Amino acid sequence: MRLHQEVALVTGGGSGIGYAIVERFIAEGASVGVLIKEEKDALPLKQAFGEKVEVTLGDVRNFTDNQRAVAATVARFGKLDCFIGNAGIWDFMAGLETQDVDKLESSFHELFDVNVKGYVLGAKAVLPALRASKGCMIFTASTSSFFTGGGGPLYIATKHAVLGFIRALAWELAPEIRVNGVAPGGTLTRIFGTQPEADISQMISAITPLGFAAKPEDHSGIYAMLASRSDGKFITGTVILNDGGISIGKRASGIDM
């Protein structure tokens, strides 16, 4: 178990990729703090992972909530080795031209506050604990951190910002703290809202060279590798694409997630 006795904090760990990360880290020997916004996600986490998880309810857009999650995790497990900024939202391909100004402004604030500010505030909150442990940070980026087609212009702008943030922070915090990211491709999560999973799966599969849509657990091992003090010790400022090959060319015309 490559994360034996390590302690991580995951934002947005109540579902999707975040939940898969929590599950994988615990399987690899870690204890995990989780910051979630929705109370309904708390009980399933506690039932599934018991004493290995510490759940904090809060909003990543609030610095105090991030601090509370750090404090609760350290109080429960004694330290913090890895911060995973993962909470994020999608814009359902909303274009610039079709949105009225009021909607555009509210969408801008919501997307940038969750997808970018949430990572910035989380990173700021964990700094003292990670300096003490000489730990690491990992952020969920996206294929949209590199390419267009996976969302509207606001969503893609937020994910491009995440890429820049990872690289700049890795430079600032080296050599004490490693900072990396994972860029998932099309993945079946709650981000697609009420759209039928079968339809989303078919759409992603059709444009992905490997021919299938990812599940959240298909990404979690990369986070574990980057968090590992042995396997990831020489990696910083890197964002690993895990996209089924979309970055080398789509199989057919469609929406690049």
Tally of alpha and pi helices: 7
Distance between the termini: 32 Å
Low-pLDDT residue intervals, each spanning 5 or more residues: none
The total count of strands amounts to 7
What is the helix content?
Answer: 40-55%
Structure explained in plain terms:
- By secondary structure, the chain is an alpha/beta fold.
- Helix content is 43%, strand content 14%.
- The chain is built from 7 helices and 7 strands; from the N terminus they run βαβαβαβαβαβααβ.
- The protein has helices at 16-27, 42-49, 63-77, 101-133, 153-173, 197-207, 217-227, and strands at 7-11, 31-36, 53-57, 82-85, 136-140, 178-184, 239-242.
- The longest helix is centred in the middle third of the chain and has 33 residues, at 101-133.
State the gist of this model:
This protein is an alpha/beta fold and 257 residues long. Helices cover 43% and strands 14% of the residues. It is globular and about 50 Å long.
Strand-helix topology:
Layout: E1 7-11, H1 16-27, E2 31-36, H2 42-49, E3 53-57, H3 63-77, E4 82-85, H4 101-133, E5 136-140, H5 153-173, E6 178-184, H6 197-207, H7 217-227, E7 239-242
Parallel strand pairs: 1-2, 1-4, 2-3, 4-5, 5-6, 6-7
Helix pairs in contact: 1-7, 3-4, 4-5
